[in-house]
Amino acid sequence: MFYRITKIVILMSFSFFLMNASYAVESKTTVKSPAIKKATTTGFMQEMTEIRVHEGPDRSGKEVYEYRCKGCHGKNTQGAPMPDDKFEWSMRLRNKGMDTLLKHSMEGFNNYLMPPKGGCRNCNQKEVYAAVYYMMETSGIKLKKSDKK
Prior knowledge:
With about 150 residues, the protein is mainly α. The protein contains 6 helices and no strands. The chain has helices at about 1-30, 45-50, 60-75, 85-95, 100-105, 125-135. It is globular and about 70 Å long.
């Protein structure tokens, strides 16, 4: 029995290897145009090890979201509410209040699952708050003037 299981595992591994090897050869020969560079978020560890100061005017909430927040909030990582999730954002706003949400965005929350400033060390307070407002407003939540600081 053991011999049979071992044989199956070896055959499956070898088949997987051949499939990947043929894909690699095929992709090298068929790709003729250069890759299109898409705008992506920077990595959290990159942000934590590189100290760069943002120079220029304050970025909008959408710009900060695209630069940093999208890494987690764009795919609901560890429960991070997505920008178009009205239910989650309204629950958080109702249960915690805007002051607490903004405090968590600046100081971090839940053992750094939400890192301070959302991991954007070169963002100022106004930019971080703008990103929070952006995510809530794109969820369809109407913020009052008193909610915005």
